[in-house]
Write a structure and sequence with these properties.
There is one protein chain. With 523 residues, this protein is α/β, with parallel strands linked by helices. The chain has 4 domains: 63 residues, no CATH class; 185 residues, Glucose-6-phosphate isomerase like protein, domain 1 (Rossmann fold, 3-Layer(aba) Sandwich), CATH 3.40.50; 165 residues, 3-Layer(aba) Sandwich (Rossmann fold); 63 residues, no CATH class. It is 54% helix and 11% strand. The chain contains 18 helices and 10 strands. The strands form 2 sheets. Strands 2-1-3-4-5 form a 5-stranded parallel beta sheet. It has a 5-stranded parallel beta sheet with strand order 7-6-8-9-10, sandwiched between helices. β4, α8 and β5 form a beta-alpha-beta unit. α11 packs parallel to α18. The chain starts with a helix and ends in a 23-residue tail after the last helix. The N terminus is likely disordered.
Length: 523
């Protein structure tokens, strides 16, 4: 390749190698692009002509990849539309973050393409659908690595049925087992390797690809749906699709804007909850975002975190609010302060009566036993028991402090979604929660979050303001990004705190947390 570059540089016409004026920055773009195939050759380029050739070759490769992806997207839309018209099922099978992307895909396809997708975990697929798959069903396998063992197994099971089932892979690694051996069609993510263990950029690419595929499917429906819709309906759908296409082009700008405008608010929220032992994320209509955000916090912060459709939280999980027995450092600090106060009272009385070290030791043990709910202290003599009884009077362990439970609300700007979120917020904060809201600016929602409840000892609220879109789907992208940033900031803060305490092997790390593998390729 180096000899080729030298030969071309020596003999190629100058006008062929020249780039248009103002495009000199393309070299830097390609050299850092994760799609660039030939960018690694740039260090060997000794002249401007050779560098231009590398840029041209990478441009040609990128154009070819773009064309191939466009053709694949067209086939995808055709398969989906054929299945929809036949009344077949369209399954989206995935694990982990890819499963949450599948959940987001259902939202996109429902709203944009009026098409039902069924998100399913591989184990659930075996339990629910393994014996009911029909000819012409579609299975979309989503995997960053393309090597997820559970996913490969159900693709093998589907092949073993002998049914004519379309198998589509959405993968980042196009040289993987799922892409090369298990699929009829491959849609590449093309986001480059995911360096950190937790999926971040690959997840954003997955939901972007699904959003684009929903648009492609809707466009195919419009062109072939003359028998289903009136001319007025067709024109309305074309107008909606055109608007969505315009918004698609602006997603990178929206992501950049989100990072710029929310960073300080995210840091403030992370500073409040990075040591919280348990957190709940409540999303209205965007359960995929809540589930993925909770997974990110669990992965890199190691705090117990769950994601729910917001309205579901009141059906049992809300029992975690108010008094509970889930404790973190803030709870422990308050418990210790109350215990120390009682102990000081007892030791002071012992000293005033001239009782020595042995009595003090028995008093400490008696109060420690009392704090953990052990039976009465029989090791104390009569005088010591009198002092102990006074020190322990009205001292009920695990009470006397109040640390509100953190709830994170995620909602889009639609009036109904905002109204439901406000209702949930008011319901939960009077039962002992504190509040983080991730949403576009809304005065009523902000007011509901920031107003403390009547009995709100220790209540606090944080509003993270997303860039305004007034759109039902784009907040999936912005709120996902905010939660990724929140998990990162929480992880860094907790890691530093544990390091400062000298705790070895704690496993908190934003890039390589303990126990998490990049790809699970074994049973």
């Amino acid at each position: 390749m180096r000899a080729l570059l030298q030969a071309v540089d020596a003999g190629a016409p100058a006008e062929y190698l020249e780039l248009p004026a103002g495009n000199e920055s393309l070299g830097a773009t390609f050299s850092s692009s994760e799609m660039a195939v030939f960018a690694d050759m740039l260090p060997f380029c000794t002249t401007a002509g050779m560098r231009r050739l590398v840029r041209i070759l990478d441009t040609l490769v990128e154009l070819q990849e773009t064309e191939e992806t466009a053709l694949a997207a067209g086939r995808f839309a055709r398969y989906i539309e054929e299945a929809r018209k036949r009344g077949n099922h369209i399954y989206v099978a995935a694990c982990g973050s890819s499963y949450h992307a599948a959940m987001a895909a259902c939202l996109f396809f429902n709203e944009i393409a009026f098409t039902e997708l069924i998100p399913i975990l591989p184990g659930e697929f075996r339990g629910r659908y393994s014996n009911t798959v029909k000819d012409h069903d579609v299975v979309i396998a989503v995997s960053q690595s393309g090597e997820t063992k559970d996913l490969i197994d159900i693709l093998n099971d589907i092949s073993a049925t002998g049914r004519s089932v379309r198998r589509i892979a959405i993968v980042n690694n196009v040289n993987s087992t799922i892409a090369l051996e298990k699929s009829d069609l491959v849609i590449p993510l093309r986001c480059g390797p995911e360096i950190a263990v937790p999926a971040t950029k690959s997840f954003i690419n997955q939901i972007t690809v699904f959003y684009t595929l929903a648009l492609e499917t809707a466009a195919r429906q419009i062109e072939s749906g003359a028998g289903e819709w009136t001319p007025a309906m067709v024109e309305q759908r074309r107008a909606e699709l055109a608007e969505r296409m315009d918004k698609l082009e602006r997603i990178p700008e929206l992501i950049e804007r989100t990072i710029q405008t929310t960073r300080e608010q995210v840091e403030a929220a992370a500073g409040r909850i990075y040591f919280s032992p348990s957190i709940q994320l409540l999303a209205t209509r965007m359960n995929a975002v809540a589930r993925e955000g909770a997974l990110k916090i669990r992965e890199v912060v190691l705090n117990h975190t769950e994601g729910f459709e917001g309205a579901e939280f009141k059906h049992g999980p809300n029992t975690i609010l108010g008094f509970n027995t889930v404790y973190g450092p803030e709870h422990f600090s308050q418990m210790l302060a109350i215990f120390t106060d009682r102990l000081q009272q007892g030791l002071s009385e012992l000293a005033s009566r001239g009782l020595g070290f042995a009595s003090a030791r028995r008093m400490v043990n008696a109060l420690c036993d009392h704090a953990r709910g052990a039976p009465a202290a029989f090791q104390l003599n009569t005088e010591e028991q009198e002092i102990f009884a006074e020190a322990a009077r009205d001292y009920v362990p695990l009470t006397g402090f109040s640390v509100p439970y953190p709830l994170i609300y995620i909602t889009g700007p639609a009036e109904r979604d905002v109204r439901l979120t406000i209702s949930q917020l008011n319901t939960h904060k009077i039962r002992g929660s504190c509040t983080i809201v991730i949403a576009e600016e809304n005065h009523r929602l902000r007011q509901a979050a920031e107003k403390p409840p009547g009995n709100g000892e220790g209540y606090w609220a944080q509003y993270i303001t997303l860039p305004r879109t007034d759109d039902s789907l784009l907040p999936v992208f912005t709120s996902t990004l905010v939660l990724q940033m929140l998990a990162l900031e929480m992880s860094v803060r907790k890691m530093q705190a544990l390091d400062n305490l000298g705790i070895a092997g704690h496993g908190v790390h934003p890039d390589v947390p303990k126990n998490v593998s990049k790809s699970i390729t074994v049973d």
